[in-house]
Amino acid sequence: MKKILLVLLFSAVSSFAESQLWYRTPAQTWGEALPLGNGRLGAMVFGGTHEEHLQLNENTIWSGSPRNYDKVGAFKQIPKIRSLLFEGKNAEAETLVNREMLGERPLGCYQPLGDLRLVFEGGENSTD
Fold it and tell me: What range defines the domain where residue 111 resides?
């Protein structure tokens, strides 16, 4: 029900032509692909009419290990960090965040879940 309502509300605000993305060629590199996800599952969509390439990610696949990344009392630094940012002192704010708010290091990094390639018959002759 929520999905249908969202689609109806979106349709009322914007026509399909105004809300679509259009590219002449599929992405060639990861940086050109479009991200899609919900915070737990994700994909980089390369696009294509004959072959679609999706690089998949899932939030439990990473190079780290379970740890406590919370830093007790870190929230107390937020007013000072905001003040530094508003004063244009970005480097100082970043130093304060790194020192007082971020927990145990290094965090590790996400690893790819895999590549999914879909081949569509007839797509090789598509135009426009």
Answer: 25-122
pLDDT band at 66 (very low <50, low <70, confident <90, very high): confident
Residue 11 pLDDT: 52
Structure tokens, 7: 């689609």
Is residue 17 situated within a structural domain?
no
pLDDT interval class at 7 (50, 70, 90): very low
Q: Is 44 exposed, middle or buried (0-12, 13-18, 19+ CB in 10 A)?
A: buried
1 falls within a domain: no
Q: CA 119 to CA 128: how far, in whole Å?
A: 19
Q: In what order do the strands lie in the sheet with 51-58?
A: 34-37, 41-45, 51-58, 114-119
Asked, for residue 118, whether it belongs to a domain, the answer is yes
Number of domains in the chain: 1
Predicted local confidence at residue 15, as pLDDT: 65
Q: How many CB atoms lie within 10 A of CB 63?
A: 10
**Rounded to whole angstroms, how far apart are CA atoms 23 and 65?**
39
